Structure formats: structure tokens, C-alpha cells
Amino acid sequence: MQIQDKAPFDTPFEWIGGEDRVRQLTERFYDLMDLEPGYAALRAAHGPSLDNARQRLFWFLCGWLGGPQHYTDRFGHPMLRARHMPFPIGIAERDQWLACMDQATGETGVPEDLRARLRQSFFQTADWMRNKGA
CA angle, corner 74, sides to 18 and 119, nearest 5? Predict the structure, then answer.
């Protein structure tokens, strides 16, 4: 499939369908983390409750996708790498996060052109977050 040169919307936030759709994506991402054995290590890194992570990822994704800046309004700059430094993130953790998010985007009906763009952006960000060799 060929990715269009110009997205059909001004921002990925508009393209994905706004806050309700970002919420659906976030909820599915964490539901999958709880349900799928292939994401067990990723789930274990999040502690006993996913409530805080669900809310913060939703806030973050809204702004990251070009919508309301809920996260930065509450906490300032995301400083993703610094905030994730206490957690060992290597290739396996990166790949589990990416696979879980890709499955969530597919299952929540994110348009394929947008999904391909997000896949690339998520990889760049997740790879940058790595703080251990393997």
C-alpha cells in the first residue's frame, strides 16, 4: 500500500477521530497488555494497576497526535526518556510495546494509512527510549 503524500486531515488527532478514538485506542492497548501472554513482560513492568498508566498515555497521545495538550498542561514537558529511565527498556520491551500498540491500532480501526505513519513514529520513539543493550 502506498502512503499518501498529504494526510486527509491537518493532524493525526483529527484523522484518528478525536478524543473518543484516542481513548478507545488507549483502553485497547492496556486491555491487550492484560490479556495477551505475549505482552506479559510489558504488563509486569507496569505494576499491579494500569489505571494511572491508562490515563497518562491517553493524555499524552492526545497532545502527541496534535490534539489537546492534556499531559503538558498537567505535568509540563513529557520528558519521556527521563520518566522511563527507572524501567529497563531493551529491544524485547520495545518490541512488545510496539506489537501491542500495533495490535490495538488494528483492532480499533485506525485507518491503514495513518496506522503505517504511526507505526513508524512509534518505532522511532520506542527505540529512542531504550536504556539497556538487549
Answer: 45
